[in-house]
Design a protein that fits this description.
Elements: H1 6-10, H2 18-32, H3 41-57, H4 60-69, H5 71-81, H6 87-103, H7 106-118, E1 123-129, H8 131-136, E2 138-149, E3 165-166, E4 175-180, E5 183-188, E6 197-198, E7 211-222, E8 231-234, E9 250-256, E10 263-265, E11 268-276, H9 277-282, E12 284-289, E13 296-301, E14 310-313, E15 319-321, E16 327-329, E17 332-339, H10 346-358, H11 375-383
Parallel strand pairs: 1-9, 11-17
Antiparallel strand pairs: 2-7, 3-6, 4-5, 8-9, 10-11, 12-13, 14-17, 15-16
Helix pairs in contact: 2-3, 3-6, 4-5, 6-7
Length: about 375
């Protein structure tokens, strides 16, 4: 397979100086570094090509060989000594050290990754809230099960007074590294099971685990205006970290019960108000329930109201604290549901017939009415 020219990969002339090579490598390594291109296979391949080209050209002897014989001149060296391009992965690993000050990698970046690997896992707890508690906010006591340090060995796993030995295989890191071509793959150390230490005398209380699963009660504050499916993050109440690492967090997932009176849509509330056809025709005053305890709002319905009309009551929806002290409040939307009476008396039928005659409405009741299909029955028919 034909390999690309190293000078072309770095974008420099064949007579480029060491400084020009280094400058070109820095620019391209930053552009294609996996930390800047997560999941981009093309960028990853380009980064390896740049690293390989620089590994050869920055070495005066290899560069001289490459200039005279090309890629073929380097091939025997790789096969004979095993040195070849194995340094590419070393350059990959040392990239953060070389350019930490310039690109923000380096020791600080590695420390963050190491701390993240030692950090405990996040735990999840589901909490059911009433509709009103979700709207108004509340305080709840929850019980969770999580690992705690053994009191006898204070989490070390070793019997008090005995020695803790650093694992020889992983040198206390809890991981072993296997080099594969250009990359290094880490896995849990098989000797210490990721603990980094070996315990000649395990704690008799926890059998060397250093942890116990215990129940713990927490009082949490539910802010006003939370919605179904919202998640509250409680810092450092999750699983303990490894080797003294920070605890994970506790994620409380909220399950809000439905209301018999309102339907919620963000900060807005919807209420379906049933009125008679007489009220719709003549107009009326409706007492509409609100979020206030035993609270009602008087809504003036104009004459001639129609089924499905919507009346908006400003500021009677959900109030929620957004940022800082700023609050936002939604509206209450009242949907009119005009109901037809089914238990008319003889006198009421007489009056309605007279009304129909006055309005020129023909009423032909000689033929039997068709079967009435309810919503529930229609759902059953469609499901067959």
């Amino acid at each position: 397979m034909n390999k690309r020219d190293y000078y072309t990969i770095l974008g420099v002339e064949r007579q480029a100086s060491d400084q020009e090579l280094k400058r070109a490598y820095r620019t391209l390594a930053k552009r294609y570094h996996p930390d800047f291109n997560p999941g981009d296979a093309r960028a990853e391949a380009e980064f390896k090509a740049v690293a390989e080209a620089y590994e050869v050209l920055q070495d005066s002897k290899k560069r001289q060989t490459y200039d005279r014989f090309g890629h073929e001149g380097l091939e025997p060296r790789r096969q004979g000594t095993g040195a070849g391009f194995e340094k590419v992965e070393e350059i990959f690993e040392q990239f953060n050290d070389l350019f930490g000050d310039v690109f923000g990698f380096g020791e600080e970046q590695r420390q963050k990754r190491e701390e993240a690997s030692r950090r405990g896992k996040d735990l999840t707890h589901n909490l059911t809230l009433s509709f009103r508690d979700a709207i108004e906010g509340t305080r709840e006591t929850i019980t969770i099960s999580r690992e705690e340090d053994c009191e006898r060995c204070t989490g070390s796993g070793a019997e008090p007074g005995t020695q803790i030995i650093t694992c020889e295989r992983c040198q206390g890191s809890g991981e072993v590294t296997h080099k594969q071509t250009f990359f290094a793959v880490s896995s849990t150390c098989p000797d210490c099971k990721g603990k980094g230490v070996v315990l000649p005398s395990p704690c008799v209380e926890c059998d060397g685990e250093g942890k116990f699963v215990e129940s713990r009660q927490l009082i949490i504050t539910i802010p006003a205006g939370v919605e179904d499916g919202s998640r509250l993050r409680i810092k450092n109440e999750g699983a303990p970290g490894k080797q003294g690492g920070e605890r994970g967090d506790l994620l409380v997932v909220l399950d809000v019960e439905e209301s018999e009176v309102f339907e919620r849509d963000g900060l807005n509330l919807h209420h379906r108000a049933s009125i008679s056809f007489v009220q719709a025709a003549l107009g009326c005053t409706l007492r509409v329930p609100t979020l206030e305890e035993d609270g009602y709002h008087e809504l003036q319905v104009p004459a001639g109201a129609q089924f499905g009309d919507i009346h908006k009551l400003e500021g009677l929806g959900v109030t929620k604290l957004m940022q800082g002290k700023m609050r936002r409040t939604g509206n209450l939307l009242v949907h009119l549901m005009v109901m037809t009476p089914q238990d008319l008396s003889a006198r009421e039928k007489e009056l309605l017939t007279e009304l129909a005659n006055l309005r020129g409405i023909e009423l032909d009741l000689s033929s039997p009415p068709p079967e009435t299909i309810t919503r529930e029955k229609l759902d059953l028919i469609e499901g067959e």
